[in-house]
Design a protein that fits this description.
Length: about 210
């Protein structure tokens, strides 16, 4: 087997084992928490019949091991089960599914990641190549100073600085925005510009230094 393919398969296998271990730890931790979820949602005054119906609607009346493997099997097929956070009503028509909740957010995350990658990768490669070609020049020193400062700064700090100057002080970008599937494409771009810029600065700093070193 090719060494690169072997390394990729090993990394994928290790990643899957890590996800499995994390899911077991989180599931077990939730099971060990004191009190019941039904009581926390319905309140102390809920009758035993109401609590039992609530637990049955979410499948909480079954053994934990059975629920875990059912959840894993569903997750592999894209079904992440019912949302506990959205279980304000225990009747089936009021139950919210996790996939319905994270679907729009996942789309926005991928959209932001795509915009960031399209902008950050070319800039990082160009700056890295120029810094390598003109090593120890004034250009190289300036770029390295800026990237080191960016790497040393937490992402949330960079985001706050950009938000203060570009959104609050000069009002170039939206400080806060909401997007959905009905948002026009160009407006979608303008609304994710500020978080995309924050991620771009951080990614460019890391990728530029790796490009220069290689």
């Amino acid at each position: 087997m090719h060494p690169v393919l072997k390394t990729v398969l090993q990394r994928l296998g290790l990643g899957l084992l890590t996800l499995l271990a994390v899911s077991v730890i989180i599931f077990s931790s939730l099971e060990l928490l004191p009190g019941g979820f039904a009581e926390a949602i319905l309140g102390q005054g809920a009758t035993p019949e109401t609590v039992a119906a609530f637990n049955k609607s979410l499948g909480l009346d079954r053994p934990p091991v059975e629920r875990y493997f059912e959840w894993v099997g569903g997750a592999v097929q894209g079904d992440f089960g019912k949302s506990f956070a959205g279980a304000g009503g225990w009747r089936e028509e009021n139950v919210r599914y996790v996939s319905d909740i994270i679907g729009p957010r996942l789309y926005n995350t991928f959209f932001l990641a795509a915009v960031t990658a399209i902008v950050a990768v070319p800039i990082a490669l160009i700056l890295g190549l120029l810094a390598a070609l003109y090593r120890n020049s004034w250009f190289d020193r300036i770029v390295n100073s800026v990237t080191l400062t960016t790497i040393a700064s937490p992402e949330f700090f960079v985001a706050y600085i950009l938000m203060f100057f570009l959104a609050v002080k000069f009002r170039i970008f939206y400080p806060l925005s909401t997007v959905n599937a009905a948002t026009p494409f160009m407006e979608h771009i303008s609304r994710v510009a500020l978080p995309a810029l924050t991620l771009t600065l951080v990614i460019v700093a890391h990728m530029m230094r790796m490009t220069r070193a290689s």
